[in-house]
Amino acid sequence: MQTWAKRGLQTAFVTGGLLMLGTGIASAQENVDPDAAPPAVDVAASVPIKADQNKLATPVKEITVPKVDRTISTDRVTSAVPTRTAAPVANPLVRQAGERLQGTPLQNLVRGNTIQAHVDVPINICGNAIAVLANTEATGDCSQTTHRDGTIVTDGAGQALAGNVVAVNHVLPVQLTGNAIAAGGNATTNTDAQQVSTTGGDITTNGDKGAISGNVVSEQGATPVQITGNGVGAAGIADANSTADTFASSEGDVLTSGKSSSISGNAVPIPLSPLAEVNGNSAAGAGNASTDSTQTGTAVTGGNVDTNGDPATLAGNIAEPALAGPITVDDNAAAVGGNSTAVSDTSNWSKAGGTKHTSGTGSTASGNVAGAPISLPAAVGGNGASLVGNALTDHANAATSNAGGETYTQADKSVLSGNIADVPPASAVDVCGNGATLAGQAAGTCENDVKSTTNGYQGTTGNDSVISGNIAQTPLAAPAEVYGLAAAVGGQAAGSADETKLVRSSGQPNTQDDHGTVSSNIVTAPTAVAPQVFAVTAGLVGNTTSDTANDTTVIAGQGPKAYGKKSSASGNIVQVPTSTPAQVFADGATLVGNNKTTGDNDTDMKAGGDALTTGEKGSIAGNVVSAPVATGTQVLGWSVGGGSNVDAFSTNALSSVAGGDVNSNGDQGAVSGNLIGAQPAVLPAVPGNTVAAAGITNSDVVSDTNVVSGADSYSTADDASVSGNLIHVPANAVAGVYADSVAAAGNATTVTDKTSYTSAGGEMLTEGSGPLTAREMTVPVEAAAKVARIPVEVVGQATTLGTSDDTQLTGEDAGTLRAAQLKGLELPKGVDSLLKANEVPAFHGLDSKLPVNQLPNPADLAALTGQLPTSALPAVAQERSALPVNGGAASLSPNVQGLPLGQLLDAAKGLVPAGATERSLPSLPVTAPALPVPVQLPALPTERSLPTLPVDGPASLSGLNLNPTQGLAPQADERALPQLPFNAPALASIDPANLFQTVTGSL
């Protein structure tokens, strides 16, 4: 063999080994020939540095830091920051080996496999000022732009171990601009800075008809860092005025395929887009610091993913972990023996990933998708803290974060294909607008607008398949935050926040399967949770205030849809949606001082939704197991004070909903279309309580809560077996400690208006024919307990006012009011409430009540002929008389025709309580028709005590079931009921054919 040939082969083998191991010095794509194959290994890193317009002052002199503008890189080294990073020089050994292999059987030694790793770290340092025992001022107008192309085009079709790609395209820009630091001097900055860093590109390959070909693993990262506009004054004065903008991206779609292949066309994109920022903060120690800054940041990574696994084995699968979310520490102020002020406006956008599409039709273990996107914006901003100093902030924050996207796949006539696994947590963490001080003054102000979302619609099919088209997902939407708080010890603190927040995790799972086996089933556990603490104040020998508003929307998942017609063990749904807010807000507590907190809350939470499936003509198909859980845990409007004045004001609107309707079909099926459910709804309500010890406390709360777990269930099962059955256990528990006041040598007042709606389960409807088919069974569980409107006075004054209107629905319950837990009083259908002290029932045919200071319509009276219990209608009085309001009934003028005087006087005596005032009695008519029988109206209750119930009254009056001795007697913790008359006229005019309804509630 010729010497040159031997040397060429040796060089090829040695170089090929180094390239595959990634240890050689590689060549980047120079795109001289767009049709040329990419290099096997392309590894490059660069650190472009730009430093300009920075100042440093010392007692010796003030200097301008020398300008730096260069790139440290494995690429060509240049003195100027490139607008496009240059490609590295090709290794001569590699170039010569490639040239000598052209036209030989070894020219395709690497078969289009590619390893690419690009990392760029641009650094921009501009407009900073540092003063040490001297004064300095810096101005900066600086920008930096870098770009590196990461596009890859290769091919492994029809080959083994070919066309695979491992790529890293990452930018990490660092912006250090507009900061002022003063130590024993004065430092001032005025800076405007921009930084743009981009990389990436589409990755295109192919593994059709290949083996272990066309697979892609790609990290696409953009992680910018901003440290801008901060001011630090230590025995000096620091003043920073700054604007900063950062844009970083590593974008690109992933396009591959694995048709008719084995272990090919799989894709693992890894988009990462977190931003890290420390901007506009102010810190003063025995000095002064102030900042005024505006900063924006954008990070975008990844793109759409498209592949295919028809028909194939272990092909066309996608797994995408993703991370998005700005992480910021902006506009906080801290002072120790000094003064600190921070004012800023922050806006950030972060996006990672996109739509995923694949297919596994006619395949085995192909076309599956696994997603794990995380959206986690986190912010610490607008907080003020002082120690024997003053700290003030005014902060506005807007953040949008999105990870992942919609998913589409299909797996007809396949095995173990087209399945989707989705773990998409979305959160938002904020510590915002808080103020805290120790022997000083601190105020935190924040306006916060945040959107955090992950993934979206999840769709697949599993027709004529085995273990295919199934979906498993665990959506989690969970904002966690503390904002608008104030705490003071020997000082004054204020917290203020106005928050708008949307947190959404995943979307609707939808799958379809006809003639499948163990296919198109859905298991979903969407969780919506919101631990939030806001508008809470606390003081110890101090003054605190808070004024905070919250508007939060939390959505976890959506209603699942599955179809399993003519299938086996398919189209079934198991769902466990939970909605569990945990909020503490508008509460104040102070020991010696003044405290005022105001909190307005509007929270809407939903987990899951309506479930729809079918098991028609199926076996073990279209069944649903549903276990939604909904709660409404809140502690709000408490005022607690000792030797202090504490006011707590709040409005509350909460909706917490888990699950929804469930619909199925088991017609002509076996063990199909069955619905099994447990739907607990729990409402622990504790609003508007107050405690005063040697002080004055006030609580004023308006609260409206809606807690719903599950809803209606429908199924059919014609000509079926063990199908269409409904088994439900709705559980409804309401417990409340609210509107209570405790006063010990002080004054405690609470005014609480509470409305609640709590529903567990709903109607159940099924129909069908066949053995053990279309049966219903429900076991409702219900409990209610409360400690409400109870004044406790210990040498003090405790006042409780307000109302409660509570509705508690359990299962197919038509709806009853259980606020007072009273039973046993039945009124005719159409009567909305018990009679008041100045009312008698309206007669059928009258368009006015008797008596209400007006005469009845004569036409109406004529229409009553034969309906009243007397033989003739009474005459109408022609004169007016007045009922005395003081002095009893002795002077009553009997100007009523046809009414026995003696009975009238006796009835009048019972109307007038001892010591009645002018406002204590309702107005009576001065002219009225002669009543057929003596009438005695009930005495009016006083404000603090009510007359006792009669124990020997009639059991009923003309069909009106009073039953006063059973169920109406007050419990130990309830006020007595007003006295009911036992000489009432027979209410024969009420139509006895009317149906009766049970009405219970507080009187």
Automatic annotation (TrEMBL):
Signal peptide limits: 1-28
Cross-referenced Pfam families: ChpA-C (PF03777)
Biased composition (Low complexity): 350-366
Domain of life: Bacteria
Domain Chaplin stretches: 110-137
Region (Disordered): 339-366
UniProt keyword terms in alphabetical order: Amyloid, Cell adhesion, Cell wall, Secreted, Signal
Residue spans of biased composition, Polar residues class: 339-349
Name the record gives this protein: Chaplin family protein
Species this chain originates from: Lentzea sokolovensis
